[in-house]
């Protein structure tokens, strides 16, 4: 079959064309994959950054709501202000613990006798910081 020069040249040309097509396909694949991976990385970085900014803004807005209560919680009846902030901020409840070991909440009305908010981790952290702090959710469960 490859006894003639024409057959050998044809086979060599065919092999070169097939090799060139396979090489071109592989090069295109790896270049496209590299560009796609870079685009995906940039997109994910952008999304993660925007979500981090949004979460930071959300936490800051909640923190400002709680900080705005500073004068109201020192009044004789802070419950209306606590209820307003709970409704505006989408909180399940807003409570304030006082240094005299009493506590007032926007929606919880029956705080058991002897409940000491000053011994809770959220109270201690906020008292040490002297400002509102962000903590993990605290489950207020009374027996």
**In DSSP terms, counting alpha (H) and pi (I) runs of 4 or more, how many helices?**
3
Order of helices and strands: HHEEH
| Number of strand elements | 2
Mean pLDDT level = 88
Strand content: under 5%
What is the C-alpha radius of gyration, as a whole number of Å? 34 Å
Shape type: rod-shaped
Between the first and last Cα atoms, what is the distance in angstroms? Answer: 94 Å
Structural class: mainly alpha
Poorly predicted regions: none
Q: Sheet bearing the most strands, described?
A: 2 strands, antiparallel
Sheet with most strands: strand arrangement: 1-2
Binned, the helix content reads 55-70%
Could you please describe the fold and organization of this structure?
The protein is mainly alpha-helical. The chain is built from three helices and two strands, in the order ααββα. It has helices spanning 5-67, 79-89, 121-129, and strands at residues 95-97, 103-105. The chain has a two-stranded antiparallel sheet. It is rod-shaped and about 110 Å long. The N and C termini lie far apart (94 Å). The model has no long low-confidence stretch (mean pLDDT 88).
